[in-house]
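Colleagues,

For the teaching module next term, I've prepared a clean inverse folding example: a structure given as tokens, and then the sequence designed for it. I'd like students to try predicting residues themselves before seeing the answer, so please don't circulate the second half yet.
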């Protein structure tokens, strides 16, 4: 029996449903398929449906390009997981991050067509962009799944979060890319408001190369 969901008043681009069973959540995922422009986040009966806006998608793409540039310049293999649905039925939690990457665990996931988080590791890095208030604890979802690192951009403010003893704490440097301080990401992201993306990425790559040269041999 499906319980009639209760709906909270939506913020821009979001709606929250209460009393949603895991079976209903899975059925929605299956019926909607992969070709859709909404994301679903589920936490033990709460279902948040989000429609990404331009102010959300642009910083996400820029941060993704920063990850690609870091991996290229530092010669690190990565696997882009995008907004792949991350589900843990045993935890009654599921999420679709703005973007996810396998970095430290790239070798374990390479070649797989599906991911089973009960046996496979979660993404090593998740990117989350917040331009409206979320009614669901996405950090709690990712912590329960064991995601080691989150890059969070909240209305232009960038934070690096690392999972320690089951909770996320702010850090100055990225776990996946220790050469990268959060202050530089914030600076380059702010520059994206006034310069083109091609120019921005050239400058970012040049900065990463300078960091490599400055490292002790």
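(Answer key — instructors only)
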């Amino acid at each position: 029996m499906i319980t009639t969901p209760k709906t909270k008043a939506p913020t821009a681009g979001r709606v929250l449903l209460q009393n949603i069973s895991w079976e209903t959540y899975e059925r929605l995922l299956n019926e909607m398929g992969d070709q859709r422009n909404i994301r679903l986040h589920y936490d033990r009966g709460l279902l948040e449906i989000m429609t990404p806006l331009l102010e959300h998608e642009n910083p996400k793409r820029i941060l993704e390009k920063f990850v690609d540039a870091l991996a290229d310049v530092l010669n690190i293999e990565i696997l882009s997981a995008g907004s792949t649905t991350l589900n843990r039925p045993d935890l009654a939690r599921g999420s679709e991050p703005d973007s996810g990457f396998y970095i430290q665990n790239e070798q374990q996931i390479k070649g797989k067509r599906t991911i089973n988080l009960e046996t496979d590791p979660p993404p090593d890095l998740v990117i989350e962009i917040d331009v409206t208030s979320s009614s669901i604890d996405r950090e709690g979802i990712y912590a329960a799944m064991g995601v080691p690192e989150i890059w969070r951009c909240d209305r232009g403010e960038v934070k690096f979060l690392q999972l320690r003893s089951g909770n996320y704490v702010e850090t100055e440097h990225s776990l996946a890319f220790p050469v990268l301080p959060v202050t530089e990401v914030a600076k380059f992201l702010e520059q994206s408001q006034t310069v083109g993306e091609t120019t921005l990425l050239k400058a970012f790559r040049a900065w990463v190369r300078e960091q490599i040269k400055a490292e002790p041999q």
